[in-house]
Design brief:
The complex is a heterodimer of chains A (331) and B (347). With 331 residues, chain A is an alpha/beta fold. Chain A is built from 12 helices and 5 strands. In chain A, helix 3 (57-63) links the parallel strand 1 (48-52) and strand 2. The longest helix of chain A is centred in the middle third of the chain and has 31 residues, at 139-169. Chain B contains 16 helices and 5 strands. Chain B has helices at residues 2-18, 21-38, 59-66, 78-87, 115-133, 155-158, 160-166, 171-186, 188-193, 198-226, 232-254, 260-274, 277-282, 289-292, 295-308, 313-344, and strands at residues 49-53, 74-75, 92-98, 103-110, 141-145. Chain B has a 4-stranded mixed sheet, with helices on both faces. The two termini of chain B are 25 Å apart. The chains are: A alpha/beta (331), B alpha/beta (347). Chains A and B meet through helix 2, helix 4, strand 4, helix 5 and strand 5 of A and helix 2, helix 4, strand 4, helix 5 and strand 5 of B.
Chain lengths: 331, 347
Amino acid sequence: MKRIFTILRQDWTNVLRDNLLFYIFLAPVIMAVAVRLLAPSIETINVRVAVNEAMPQAVQQNLSYYAIVSTYPDREALITRVEKNDDVPGIYWEDGQFEIILQGNEQEGEELSQILLSAATSSAQVSSFTVITHPRDSLFGEYALIFVLMTAVMLGAIVESFNMVQDKESGMVRAWAVSPLRMFEMTAARALFAMLAGLLMIVIAILIIAGGGVPWGQVLIGYLASIGIAVLMGFLLGGLSNTQLQMMAIMKFVVMLYSALPILSILVPDKWLFLFYPFPNYWMFVIFQNIFVGSGSAPVGFWGACGLTLAVTLVYLAVLFPILRKKLRLK
Amino acid sequence: MIRKLANLIAQDLRLTFRSGHIYVILAIAAIILILVFALPAEVNTEAKEYFVDASETGIFEQALASLGAEPSLILPSETDLQTALAESQRALGVIFRGSLDAPEFEIIVQGNISDENIHLLEKTLDTLIQSLRGTYQPVEADITLLNENIEPIPLNKNMIPIFMSFEVILLGFLIGAVLIFQSKQEGTLRSYRVSPGGTLIFILSKVILYDVISLIYGLVVALIAFGPAPNYLQLSLLILASSTLMTLMGLAIAVFFTNISEWFFAGATLLIVSMLPVLSYAMPVFSPAFITWIPTYGIIFGFRDVLFGMGSAATLNQTFLTLGLSLLIGFAFSYLAVDKRLMKAGL
């Protein structure tokens, strides 16, 4: 126990010396604020349309009932606007004639422009409508929160990996090799450190994005079930690399797998999801999907995802543990 | 000067090789290419709209079927609709009641949808009813397509511009910065400062090395994924210009940090911000002004335009012009930063 605290104290000193504490606080704040700012505008994306100034005011006003309208002085300026990278169709009016101008790659641009034009020129409506709204939190916000949380866990692991590489570069590892320090104690100390750093970051991120009304018990259990992934990443990054340059190389690969797999799992059809089953970060994503998006969106429930995250992580750790023990020459 | 430059490039190349970065590049390229060939060209991830025809005649259902609506989206009862909506939180529900003479729609909206979008949906449904009645008169309008050769981008290749913008051209940003910390730590930077090399050669060596690696990396992936279709001259220019910009940015930022762990958080934050244009790339309707100001916005769409033959010559020229100006500013900033903080200040 004493040896675990010694390593913890040493890592804490590194964190304070390198101003990392400041960044550990800052990183989730920046990410969470970005999510808070972006979520409302992404969830309520409006159709936009560009028109020329000569178009009758009544038509422009009708159009603004259905879309955000921007005006341009002439046809050339309108074409320049349509050619920009976003999907904005153009409607040009001259002497009572309309021309729909499209780049050609807009999603359903022709149909949409035609409906907009009909809507703007004829207000006659034959149907009656009742709109029932079930307000729900933004799905973008929920998925973004999951990714911020996963990033926080990753950053905790990276801080730990930097400490491990620093131990190697400073020769501290050689000193440990001749000390009574055991591999298990080193792992426990590193896991504890990554856990505390990650926990601090996820609490800040959740408070900013979702407020205090989340099921904190589930969040904590889910986080504890996932902490093995931080240890695994620490082993892969800090354990297998001897220099910071090597660590950056491995990190690029590991971070890509870590963050891209959950995103891909949202995009691919359900029948392909089995390809993700061997990856613990996928199951970690499923844990948070259960908590923040709902159990209907996930292939297994909360407890199943926690169990699978733990089990799959342990398999990888069981393979890596002896390799690392040999590499660090610990008992 | 050429010899000094070549020596420094060779030294940085050796360090890059030794660190395993080249193997990582090969592995990532392999994964991307596997995904390109393994993923389907199309996956429906759009928000769903479920329909129920609760009228006696079933005319709305018939109309939807004749328009080619997916049969799974036309549900037999309102109970099925409630179940479908509960399962898919992004879905919309539309119930048709009444008759063609007295049509009534109930629209069930989940989440935050703007009023304008609801009005548009109402108008679309009303247009359908008017068409069924035979009273709909579309407004006469000419349609001009600025680029008639554009085809929808297949899902599996849609990620290549993202890969180009956030992997291929970022090598110099990441590895260049790490090389600085490594050379500080090993003391080689101290030796370099008393050699006749100078700031310009120091910067150029990193820019040239990572430009060449990025160029080979990007061209090989593009060739395998797209074959001879893209304009490779434009693609090469875009890779070279954007890779140079990123390397210059990486160097200019790295010199303000004392060690790699401190730099990492700042660099990661900057990278996350630079990735925001991916949102606009995935949803071109979403392009708020602040996202369009991020340099990677122009770069990612530039790669899309070149690889898929989209965009006009004017748009591409604009991208190159913006990149050219950014390069001038980036070089001036990078030179000053490296010169003052790395070559002259205390290490």
